[in-house]
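Quick one:
INPUT:
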């Protein structure tokens, strides 16, 4: 446990940041699941619309340090290929 005032403050800040990052990560996963659900349903138009939203969310997550650039690129590439295959 933190003892000094500075370490207590850092612990508070770290917890606040952790919960905020968890919220952003959860939101990104939700949008990815919406794309996958539309692909599984076979609805190309809905999948494309959900994909554009998910790409925007993933790019914002990358800029905030939630995901690495390569992870976002991998997801975008795989989803794009699945949508094109419909």
């Amino acid at each position: 446990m933190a003892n000094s005032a500075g370490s207590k403050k850092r612990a508070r800040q770290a917890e606040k940041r952790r919960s905020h990052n968890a919220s952003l990560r959860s939101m990104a996963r939700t949008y990815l699941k919406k794309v996958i659900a539309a692909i599984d349903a076979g609805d190309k138009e809905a999948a494309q619309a959900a994909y554009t939203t998910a790409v925007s969310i993933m790019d914002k997550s990358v800029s905030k340090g939630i995901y690495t650039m390569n992870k976002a690129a991998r997801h975008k590439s795989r989803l794009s290929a699945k949508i094109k295959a419909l």
